[in-house]
Amino acid sequence: MTIATAEHIINAGFDEHRAEQFAERMVDMLNAGCTALMISIGHRTGLFDTLAAMAPATSEEIASRAGLNERYVREWLGAMTVSDIIRHTPETATYQLPSEHAISLSRTSPADNIAVFAQYIPLLGAVEDQIVHCFRHGGGVPYESFHRFHEVMAEDSGQSVVAALDTHILPLVPGLTDRLEQGIRVLDVGCGRGKALNCLAGLYPASRFVGYDFSREAVDYARREASEQGHHNATFQVRDAATLGEGNERGTFDLITTFDAIHDQKDPLAVLRGIRAALADDGVYLAQDIKGSSHHHGDRDHPIGPMLYTVSCMHCMTVSLAQGGEGLGAMWGKERALDYFSKAGFGTVEVNELAHDFQNYWYVCRP
């Protein structure tokens, strides 16, 4: 900063106290970002699960129980200690994960494990160079650059979708569980590793379930899991969702679902029109998508707004742009979503929120 620039800022009403507060906030953000990386490591290595089941223990005891290298575990415990996540007793050289913290960080609480989401930080950081290139030259980063994406999304889905399917999500459509018990045709578009669809196939053996995704790795995983679980009523196909509803597929399905899958499509409106065409006249389309307002200022109070915009910029938007697509982004918001549903030909759309889910809207769309 030049002297002239500094003088201009001061003359413009520079507030030194606010500048110091903001600098402190930036330091907090740096610490939080680094802590998120270590939380991801703690989750992936099983250290949080190990600690949740142990009394206070030394680094050697913890490493031995977890089957990990003690030196790395000791340094990780240091990061967790200074982050006030783990309690350290220097007199006994022991460490303990409080039960109040274990609820949010271990697999003992499968519906509330925030450590699952910490994995997005290193996942996105791995493509930072490519994203910077896109900032300068346009284009996008393709799906195949995100090496653990489907793995992390499957674990995410296991908490946010699968755990609530029968108790909270399906009841949004009156009479739907009865129809599923009697036997209907169900399609999940952008099924990923098929966690939700395989869950439904197990719950409702009289219904037939089909999952489409354009990732071969994800579809192969879904097929293996269906076979292992004995779900003969579930099939999975590698398929471009933009071709949905063509030919003899029109009016085929009684229920179509998308779980966090529309906004990162190459052509979201074409996919929605395909869903509408593939839906039976008395069918229902149930869509989960990110809760947003379609306006930046309207998302300032979102509890995880910064995270969602980051994921949008570094994954959802860019994978669409990599296909020459619209690049809609995760934070397209309710207003734009309703406009797209209308343009796709849906006659009525209900917007639902679930008490336990501050991240998503649940849209119930009918012809």
Automatic annotation (TrEMBL):
Residues 34-107 form the S-adenosylmethionine-dependent methyltransferase Rv2258c-like winged HTH domain. Pfam families: Methyltransf_31, WHD_Rv2258c. Gene3D superfamilies: Vaccinia Virus protein VP39 (3.40.50.150), Winged helix-like DNA-binding domain superfamily/Winged helix DNA-binding domain (1.10.10.10). SUPFAM superfamilies: S-adenosyl-L-methionine-dependent methyltransferases, Winged helix' DNA-binding domain. Signal peptide: none annotated. Residues 181-291 form the Methyltransferase domain. It comes from the Bacteria. PANTHER family: METHYLTRANSFERASE TYPE 11 (PTHR45128), S-ADENOSYLMETHIONINE-DEPENDENT METHYLTRANSFERASE RV2258C (PTHR45128:SF1). This is Transcriptional regulator.
